Amino acid sequence: MARSEWSFKSAVELSAALTAKKVSAVELTQDAIDRIERHDGKVNAICVRDFDRARSAAREADVALARGERKPLLGIPVTVKESFNIAGLPTTWGWTPQKDFKPTEDALSISRVKNAGGVILGKTNVPVGLGDWQSYNDIYGTTNNPYDLGRTPGGSSGGSSAALAAGYGPLSLGSDIGGSLRVPAFHCGVYAHKPTYNLCPTRGHTPPPFPAVPMERDMAVIGPMARSAADLALLLDVMAGPDPVDLGIGYKLALPDARHDKLKDFRLLVIDSHPLLPANADIRGAIETLAGRLTGAGADVARESPLFPDFREASRLYMRMLMSFLGAFFPPDILAGARAGAAQLSPDDKSLAAERLRGMTSSHQAWVFDEGARAGLRAQWRQLFRTFDAVICPIMPTPAYPHDHSPEQEKRRINIDGKDHVYPDQLAWPGIATLTGLPATAVPLGLSKDGLPVGVQIIGPFLEDRTPLRLAELIEREFGGFTPPPLFND
Questions:
Q1: Would you call 264 a catalytic residue per the annotation?
Q2: Which residues pair with 193 in a beta bridge?
Q3: Where's the Amidase domain (predicted)?
Q4: Are residues 213 and 310 in the same domain?
C-alpha cells in the first residue's frame, strides 16, 4: 500500500494544509491510525490506543476549522509517552502492579495540548520506571527501532521516538532526566528538546498511584519530540509556562528571542570527546562534517575552550546527584546492597560507577554540598555563554545497539570502537545539560555507514531555549534533517 502524502509531513505543514482545506483533521487522524494498524505489530511503539476519542476530537477540529478557528495544534495528530496521565487510560510507568491504574484527570501538559486542538492518538511505550535507554516492560513488551528491529529505539521515551520515525503523527510528548528525550530522538533520527529545568510544569507526569500535584523533581523535565525542528518550538510553546495553581499565581513566561537568525552570526563551541567516555567513529565523523558545514556557512566555530567546565568533575557530580534522587525510590534490598558496596569503595576510586554508588547512599548533608558545587558549575556555564551562543556535542557514544535486557545495568557493556565500557557510563553525555538544567535540542545528522541514525545535541543558555531551537531549524534547513526508515517509508 502506498503511503499517504501526509505521513511524514511536519506539524507546521499539516497545519497549513488544514487551513487551506487540502486535507481534513479526520483524514490526517485516520491516516495515522492506518499506519499504526499496518506497521505497529513490528515496531510496538503505541502501547495504549485511543482511536475512538481521537476520531471524535478530529471531527470536532474540522468543525472548528470550518468556523475559522485557529489554534496551534488544531487537528494535528499527537502521541504521548505512557508516563503522562490521560483521564481514562492506564498510566503504569511499566510497573506490573500498576497495570490497572487509570487517572481521572489529564496531566496539565495534556490539557494544554487538547486546548491547543491536538488530537491524541494514544500512549507510547516505556521501560520500567522510565529507567533505561531501551523501552520494554512485562505489560506492553518491547519497542523496536524502525531502522533496525533488532535494536533499541532508545528510552525512556523510546515509544515516542519510534512512533515519530514510523510516521504515526508529527508530534509526541516525552520526558528527560538521564537523556530520555534526547537519547531516543538520537537513536531514531528525530528531533527532541529538553527544556530549561522547570520551564514546562510536570503536574500529572506522576508515578502511579501518587496524586498529581505540582512538584519539582530534581533535574527531571518534560518536553516535545518531533520530526522537524520547527515543530519542537510549536509544541514547546503549548507545554511551557508556570502551573496556574502554583507558580503561575505570581509568574508569567517571557522567553527571550533566539540570539541570532542566521548561521553566520552564531558563535559555537563544538565538542566531540570526553575524557571518561569517548564517542565512536560514526559520531565523531558526523560532528566533524557538521563543524565543517557550519564553518562554511560563516559560523564562528571553536573546537575547544578553557571556559568549558571540567568534564570529569561535572560527570561525577551528575552521577552522584542523579542517583541520590533516583535511589530514594529503590527497594530496601537494592539500597542495602548499595550501602555495602559503597562502604568498600576506596576514597581514590573516582570511576563513574563508584560515584553512582556514593549517590545512591549519600546523606542529605552530602547532597547539600553537591548542590553548592552545582551552583558553581552553573556560574561557569553562564561565563561560557558570554563568549559562545551554544555548545554542540554528542548525545550518546554510539548509534542504536542490539536489545540487551539483562537485569543488572551495571553489568551490561557498550562497545565503543572495539572497547567495552560500562553501560550506565553513557549518562555522561546527556548529563552535560541535565545537571545544570540547561536547554538542549537533539538534532539528527543522517545515517551511519550501517544505516543507523546519528546526531548531536545543541546546548543553550539557561532559559534561552529559543537559541538552540533556532539553530536546530537552521541546520535542518541548510543541511537536511529526518530521513524516513526504509522499512516504514510506505
A1: no
A2: 441
A3: 27-467
A4: no
448 is catalytic: no
Between CA 209 and CA 207 the distance in angstroms is: 6
For residue 52, the tally of other CB atoms under 10 A from its CB is 8
CA dist., res. 324 & res. 331, Å (int):
14
- Catalytic entry in 81, 172, 175, 194: 81
- pLDDT digit string, tens, across residues 294-339: 999 999 999 999 999 999 999 999 999 999 988 887 888 888 888 8
Tens-digit pLDDT profile for residues 14-43: 999 999 999 999 999 999 999 999 999 999
Q: What is the pLDDT of residues 129-186, one digit of tens each?
A: 999 999 999 999 999 999 999 999 999 999 999 999 999 999 999 999 999 999 999 9
What letters, b where the CB count within 10 A reaches 16 and e where it falls short, cover 332-367? eeeeeebeebbeebeeeeeebebbbbbbbbbeeeeb
Catalytic residue among 10, 109, 156, 160: 156
Domain limits for position 283: 264-402+410-420
**Domain holding 138: CATH number?**
3.90.1300.10
Tell me the C-alpha distance between 171 and 40, whole Å.
17
CB atoms within 10 A of CB 1: 7
Distances (CA, A) of 259 to 262, 350, 385, 464, 478: 10, 38, 11, 8, 18
Catalytic residue among 180, 228, 324, 448: 180
| 180 labelled catalytic | yes
Instruction: Count Cα neighbours of 17 within 13 Å in the Cβ-side half-sphere.
Output: 18
Q: How many residues does the chain have?
A: 490
**Assigned C-alpha cell, 40:** 505497529
Q: How confident is residue 1, by pLDDT bands cut at 50, 70 and 90?
A: very low
- Set of cell numbers at residue 280: 565512536
Would 135 be classed as within a structural domain? yes
| Edge-to-edge strands, sheet with 191-194 | 46-49, 119-124, 77-81, 171-176, 221-226, 191-194, 440-447, 453-459, 390-393, 267-270, 300-302
Does 250 lie in the same domain as 273? no
- Collect all residues with Cβ–Cβ distance below 8 Å to 202 and sequence separation of at least 6: 108, 109, 175, 215, 216, 217, 220, 221, 222
Contact 222, 216 (CB under 8 A): no
Specify whether the CB–CB gap between 170 and 231 falls below 8 A: yes
Number of structural domains (the chain) is: 2
